[in-house]
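Sat 14:20. Reprocessing the chain from the morning session after the first attempt stalled halfway. Input below, unchanged.
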Amino acid sequence: MSLFRKTLEQKLSELIGFLFFTTGLLWWLSLISYSAADRSWNTAAPDNAPINLIGRLGAHTSDAVLQAFGLGAFIIPIVLFALSWKWLRGESVEAPAARAAGLVLLFASFSAAVSLVPGWRIFDETVPS
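Finished this time. Tokens:
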């Protein structure tokens, strides 16, 4: 019976890793294809087909995340890819509390460092750093 349990745990771990990878990929694609011309929660644009590669959901998501986190939002897909690698290989994360604290510090320091660049804007001069 333990043979089947091990197999089920391994398959569940692989499924969770695949979901993390897919979420990270969709998140990354929606961020890199952000356009201020897309209709979203705080943008009044014509009801045309969105330019975002993920569609309307990607346009809304990327707009909200860039408004909330700025360029620090690009760190989140990297974290999701790293988690998917761990889950796919069936490895555990050592010292998860320390890694979570380090991730918060990385996010804050990256956002602060990017904001120090004077006059730098991305996505056709629409999003300030």
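The radius of gyration is 18 Å.
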